[in-house]
Amino acid sequence: MEIVMAAQTPPKLTIGPILFHWPAEKKRAFYSRIAAEKSVDTVYIGETICGKRTPFFEKHYEDVTTELQKAGKIVVFSTLSEVMIPRDRALVKRACKTKHIEVEANDASALLPLSGQPHRIGSLMNVYSEDTMRFLAEKGAHHFCLAPEIPAAAVETLAKTGQSLKAGVEVQVFGRMSLALSARCYHARAHGCVKANCQFICEKDADGMDIRTLTGRPFLSINGIQTLSFSYLNLINELDMLAEMGITHLRISPHTCDMSKTIRAFADVLDKRITAREGQSRLEQLQIQAPFSNGFFYKKPGHQWREDEKISATAG
What value does the mean pLDDT take over residues 176-200? Predict the structure, then answer.
């Protein structure tokens, strides 16, 4: 198990957990492609949204972990983000007992079984303050993925706190942003089902189910119990700023667009092989059926796209 120490080195790319209910064969193929991506440092696996989905891919985790580790990747198992019933609690406890790979906690239910051992804190835990980061570090957390709605000034503050704790600090740079979780399943209700008998209807929407306002404007996206942004977060123009802040890792969230081209665009900008503008052009060629956004980073409405915005990272 590797403990990543914060350092003034270029950030590394990570692949976040698959948020959506993709078929097992699709997930296997995805992880095989990621194993071949040399620019990816860490891959997060595990079901984070709905415990009912777990049995579909549970038997494949060992093989996927082996394949990724043989390719030189750090593999981290992400836990559920919402624990509602005893079965969910059992899944989290079982994940926390895993010895051969590290665990990322996405719900407070994982903190007790992980206490005293090295572990990571996922973005769904919402670490917003330095005191929270210090408290969790005292319990064994050494790596934090920040929530996507945190603006630049706060990102920099938390990055400095992470450095003082010798902890890694990660920021999502691509993909739909998780905005909320619910006890009920919107996805099931939209199809006339209830959560207990959902018929796994969320499998129909590989990048989430888009919802619109009464006037027909695209608004949000639903993924089971999770509410996501309609827009895709894109911080490729902000990579230099994030590196200067001391961010150690940059998370790319899996979607059905060409993830290899997505990863290479970010990697080439990070390695200065192309400019951020060229990287942006490559991402635009992915033809994603939703706009890009970076508003939260600039302390603006999160769905907005701020072109060539210049800010002081320390501005309040």
Answer: 91
